[in-house]
Design a protein that fits this description.
single chain; Elongation Factor Tu (Ef-tu), domain 3; Rossmann fold; 2 domains; six-stranded parallel β-sheet; 13 strands; globular; binds flavin-adenine dinucleotide
Length: 224
């Protein structure tokens, strides 16, 4: 683990409250897909963890929800291009198992970030493993990155994703919770399960997978 300076090089508002922030570091760092950075925020003096959404080792993408009344997320999402903050990296044990077992990824909200990195990492090295991503948000306005996910589908025929909206019915999405997907038929072909999102979703998914006879060792999760 190292402490490094992260310089903001790009900032995109993905939805009404989610930002994509891209930072560069002065040196290349080896990280595993699913790990996170602990940022030291200079104004509030808070320390906040953010999952790495993608990296080539020197350019780091984060997907951060600016929470109303949230001091840390508001400070980091208010950074201007060129500003630098310190971060400790790499941290965390929610890492991809680099094998050919078909994988189901389940994420809600910004729980998207580490799963996205894990899926991209699989695609970078392996073209034969089926990957399915279930991405859940509340409403259409909370959806992001679908163009990128569509491109990934084209490039990697064994990848697919499904969008779940818990509070709205719209064409092309499934009305319900991501955990509704967890039935014996739907999960039959998957051997590993990666979960990231709210504690309630992770708890529900773990319970359902357990009831379906999936061993704990096959279920990996991070919650926030
Ligand atoms: C390992 C790890 C990885 C993480 N990765 C990400 C990430 O990639 N993207 C990301 O956006 N966040 C991520 N988080 C969450 C992040 O670290 C902060 O907890 C979050 O940004 C809130 O911090 P804050 O200072 O803004 O809010 P706080 O000041 O800590 O909280 C303000 C209020 O918001 C509530 N609150 C806290 N979190 C949430 C939430 N997620 N949704 C709704 N209300 C909330 C609190 O209960 C409190 O009432 C991660 C957390 C962990 C532990």
């Amino acid at each position: 683990m190292q402490q490094l300076s992260f310089k903001l090089t790009s900032k995109n508002k993905l939805t009404h409250d989610v930002y994509e922030l891209i930072f560069t570091t002065p040196e290349t760092i080896q990280v595993e897909p699913g790990q996170y950075t602990l940022f030291m925020l200079p104004k509030s003096k808070l320390r906040r963890a953010y999952s790495i959404g993608y990296t080539d080792g020197q350019t780091f993408t984060f997907i951060i929800k600016q929470i109303e009344g949230g001091a840390g997320s508001t400070e980091i999402c208010s950074l201007e291009i060129g500003e630098e903050i310190m971060g400790m990296i790499p941290l965390g044990h929610f890492v991809l198992k680099a094998n050919t077992t078909p994988k189901l990824f389940i994420g809600t909200g910004t729980g998207f970030a580490p799963l996205y990195f894990q899926i991209r990492a699989m695609m970078d090295t392996d073209i034969e493993t089926p990957l399915l991503f279930l991405f859940g948000v509340r409403n259409v306005v909370d959806i992001f990155y679908t163009e990128i996910l569509d491109q990934m589908k084209e490039q990697y025929p064994l990848f697919n994703y499904q969008l779940f909206l818990s509070q709205e019915e719209t064409k092309g999405t499934i009305h319900g919770r991501v955990t509704d997907f967890l039935t014996p038929e739907n999960i039959a072909t998957y051997g590993e399960f990666y979960l990231c999102g709210s504690p309630a979703m992770v708890k529900d998914a773990r319970e359902k997978l357990g009831n379906l006879g999936i061993e704990k060792e096959k279920v990996f999760f991070e919650q926030y």
